[in-house]
Amino acid sequence: MTSEFVSVVDIVGSIREGKTTASAVLEQHLDRIDMRETEIHAFNHVMAESARANAASIDADLKAGKERGPLAGVPIALKDNMCTRGVPTTCSSKILEGWKPPYDATVATRLQQAGAVIVGKTNLDEFAMGSSTENSAFGPTRNPLDTSRVPGGSSGGSAAAVAAGFAAASLGSDTGGSIRQPAALCGVVGVKPTYGMVSRQGLVAFASSLDQIGPFTHTVADAALLMEVIGGHDPLDSTSLDQPVPSLTAVLGQGVKGMRIGRLADMPDGCEPEVLARLDAAFAALKAAGATIVDIALPSLSYCLTAYYLVAPAEASSNLARYDGVRYGLRVESADLISMYGATRAAGFGAEVKRRIMLGTYALSAGYYDAYYGKALKVRRLIANDFAAAYQSCDVILTPTSPTVAFPIGEKTSDPLTMYLCDIFTIPTNLAGHAAMSVPFGTGAHSMPVGVQILAPALGEPTMFRVAAELERAS
Amino acid sequence: MSPSSDAKTTPKITAQVVAKVAHLARLDLTEAELALMTTQLTGMLDHFGDIDKLDLSAVTPMAQPFPIKNVYREDVVVPGLDRQEVLDNAPAPQDGRFRVPPSNGSES
Amino acid sequence: MSNASSAPSHATVLPNGWEMVIGLEVHVELDTKTKLFSASPNHFGDEPNTNIDPVTLGLPGALPVINRRAVELAIRLGLALNCTVQASTFHRKNYFYQDLAKAYQITQYDQPINIDGFMMLPGDVRIGIERAHLEEDTGKSTHFGGTSGRIHGSDYSLVDFNRAGVPLVEIVSRPDIRNADQARQYVSELRSILLAVGASDAKMEEGSMRCDVNVSVRKAGDPFGTRCEIKNVNSIRAVGKAIDYEARRQVDVLESGGTIRQETRHWDDAEGRTHTLRVKEDADDYRYFLEPDLVLLDPGAEWVESIRASLPMLPAARRARLSQLTGADKESEAVYVIVERGQDDYVQLVADAGGEPARALVYVQQAFSEAGANPVVPAKDLAALTLLERDAKVTATQAKTILSEIVANGGGDAVAIAAAKGFEALDTSAVEAMVDAAIAAQPDAWAKYCGGEEKAMGALVGAIMKSSQGKADGKVVTALLQKKRG
């Protein structure tokens, strides 16, 4: 727990009660940014000026007795792959450097309507492709708890911003673990909602059938509150679920008595012993709180990595084809159109993005589709079936979020596959479209935080949050 | 598990194939990048061969998480973007349009 | 646009037993207010890049949402083409081009909304419709510099995305068409159907209806030959010309021992020839995959049936109805023209007012070309005129004069006009006297006519009409001359 910082719930309460103001809260956060941002590099863009204006307007409105929403005065950071009108949105890529979207992402609009004060756009692995935030074209983000280590990724900037107290909460996007893994590595709460619960409109797509936006917070209650603000149907996203987000803040105190918690009978290799020890402690805590532990199997678990690293790059290769130097972003001038495309994209994309575009293009191309992409879609069905069977006998499943604690910067950059293995526990959720979250649960090696992941079926957020709240109480 | 009917042998990737894929993706890669990419893709695809041992013949592909259907909008105009704001972001705006170098053919 | 179906057949016949095999891919822009996947206006001719939004421009983060009206119009068209309407999906067709904002086109691939239809052409020719699927249009490029403003050799292009995302239906025929005439009839009939169901304004000159033509040749009974796709065929006339040119070109190539390459060719209307646009390569690899930003489109039987119930009577049925009413051939020019103008209901009104349908058809065809579907002339006025002529109270020529006056005045009493003009058809005995007089005056002509020289009748008829001051009915005169010849 990062108890030295004030939670969203407490900030909202203090401002409401007149104990402090939105402006004062903002200045505390901006002060911390001033002190540590150079070292940590959580942000691509700090919006101090507009944030101050927003905070002042909120204070004025509250003083005048106007309602400003459930997040009035809360400083929040957005991952720099969510469109903000007139504010640079880069995806940490040279190809979008300087681009100012002419429209807002739905989540940005909802946060603003709820009274949140957006403090900046956070760093990420370029186009959200990575697990360490080392793939940013603008330099890596460092873990606030040990700056020689990565914050995880791809939403490393958003995780670090909360862990360093730069923002009371932040939003990230999770395609294969990009919220949960950095949350675990930075010791904060991170939620990957059920696919379709949060609108993707204005989220720069990585892999459309897997991407989902979710919050980073210090507490489970804060995460529940943010989910209630950003979630719910959006007519601008065809894959948005046509139902309101379930009430989550209301269920946090309900405990886990009688709940069945699934435990993997076969734990994949490669987990640090300290991580497994914390997982055992989490099971023990839930058992002590009245839950039963049941062994379950996910026979297709080990194939998820392959399915994911074919499906996600395939979709990405198509999603990233629009960066062609015609309408926005970088252009490398050339004599003819086809040279302009090739030169622009070669100069604009980093190595990891190029690798995934190549992999995805290959997997979809004539002659290889059936062998790769087509098969990957079938494996995706297998893991969904595995989950369906597992949830016959349990309500949620507990796993480590990451096999390891935060690793040193540079340790895994030379071998893409080693980096991909960071996602082994988080990927299956995205393939199935289910809900999952990471909750800090003590520390492991090098005194770095360990996250426990709670997996829940689609729309299982209320149950998942009850378990998360119980773990928070026990930690 | 027995090899499925649609498993076949996983195709081998060659430098030639990588070059063709780079062209499809409109990525100008240097010789060194092509060589590295060939090595790395080969490594990954070897690993991804793990699913070849699964019998997937009776499995329906799953392209999206949920079987949602029939999401429509009504045919009503909503004000769009301001042209100037859009062109201000363009690499080469000209006469209210986007200028591009000659394409010398139809779709390139 | 003139209708091709009724034109006399000029179908080119290829030499040496060669046969044309033709398939058409017709793109039509649907007549919606907004685009297929976003809420910008679908409107032709506006200032460049004014009908734009994040989806149209392929901005990062933009997501498509299907226009319900576009789906409805696609289904209307599918039903009118006798298609099966089915649950369908959208795919991404990936390729790079300046006017394709996302670098992929959202289109329907292996599960199109309409499949397996057909269209009937004159002579009971059945042309299969393989599919009629929904997809989005691209933007438009204008090429500058170089020699001719053409794409080849230009210095640069400017791109306008107003058209990007406009809803299209692509109607793909089966290769059932065997000559240029049928192809023109097909396009013409398709256009009539589009207008009838309100799916599109189908203006080839504005590009809201565009034809790509697949042509191959073979010896009758052989398997299909290699086909070429011809683009830029921008009028019904050009469809016929391009096919005839291309088929002859292919026959020439094959007869001189060459082979046909599968390629896309461009129709140059000014030069009247096709030339290679691009050769189909292995590089045409569109990497189709299911569009993850959209969901299944399953209109369901209830919606489809309610659309079917709302369809108007289609051109073929209207032609059959008009044919039955008037006795004219259903494939006659008059029937085609009247139905295309939408005046068949008016002809029915004239008949309902007691008029003679066959004459009403002729009058409306001749005099109502500018009158639209609902002519202002009261149906009873036209009915009265048909009866005057039928009962030989006026001659055909006189009827024509009266018709002109009625049309000019937006109506009028035919009987009164005839009286005012002193029109009356002479009775048969009076005409017979004139006939006898003419025979007596021109014995040479009479002798030639009796000897079988039909032309000679003209001089006799002319004289009779003159002496009657136009009041003799030409048909009566002819009949009398024939009778007297025996």
From TrEMBL, chain A:
Coiled coil: none annotated. Its EC number is 6.3.5.7. Residues 25-463 form the Amidase domain. Keywords: ATP-binding, Ligase, Nucleotide-binding, Protein biosynthesis. GO terms for cellular component: glutamyl-tRNA(Gln) amidotransferase complex; mitochondrion. This is glutaminyl-tRNA synthase (glutamine-hydrolyzing). One of its GO terms (biological process) is translation. Residues 133-154 are annotated as: Disordered. It catalyses: L-glutamyl-tRNA(Gln) + L-glutamine + ATP + H2O = L-glutaminyl-tRNA(Gln) + L-glutamate + ADP + phosphate + H(+). Belongs to the amidase family. GatA subfamily. PROSITE patterns: AMIDASES (PS00571). It comes from freshwater metagenome. It is an enzyme of class 6 (ligase). GO terms for molecular function: ATP binding; glutaminyl-tRNA synthase (glutamine-hydrolyzing) activity. InterPro entries: Amidase (IPR000120), Amidase_CS (IPR020556), Amidase_dom (IPR023631), AS_sf (IPR036928), GatA (IPR004412).
Automatic annotation (TrEMBL), chain B:
Signal peptide: none annotated. This is Unannotated protein. HAMAP family: GatC. InterPro entries: Asp/Glu-ADT_sf_sub_c, GatC. Pfam families: GatC. Residues 85-108 are annotated as: Disordered. GO terms for biological process: glutaminyl-tRNAGln biosynthesis via transamidation; regulation of translational fidelity.
TrEMBL record, chain C:
The keyword Zinc does not apply. SMART domains: GatB_Yqey. It holds the Pfam family GatB_N. InterPro entries: Asn/Gln-tRNA_amidoTrfase_suB/E, Asn/Gln-tRNA_Trfase_suB/E_cat, Asn/Gln_amidotransferase, Asn/Gln_tRNA_amidoTrase-B-like, GatB, GatB_Yqey_C_2, Gln-tRNA_amidoTrfase_suB_CS, Gln_synth/guanido_kin_cat_dom. It catalyses: L-glutamyl-tRNA(Gln) + L-glutamine + ATP + H2O = L-glutaminyl-tRNA(Gln) + L-glutamate + ADP + phosphate + H(+). Residues 345-485 form the Asn/Gln amidotransferase domain. One of its GO terms (biological process) is glutaminyl-tRNAGln biosynthesis via transamidation. Keywords: ATP-binding, Ligase, Nucleotide-binding, Protein biosynthesis. One of its GO terms (molecular function) is ATP binding. Belongs to the GatB/GatE family. GatB subfamily. PANTHER family: GLUTAMYL-TRNA GLN AMIDOTRANSFERASE SUBUNIT B MITOCHONDRIAL AND PROKARYOTIC PET112-RELATED, GLUTAMYL-TRNA(GLN) AMIDOTRANSFERASE SUBUNIT B, MITOCHONDRIAL. HAMAP family: GatB. This is Unannotated protein. It comes from freshwater metagenome.
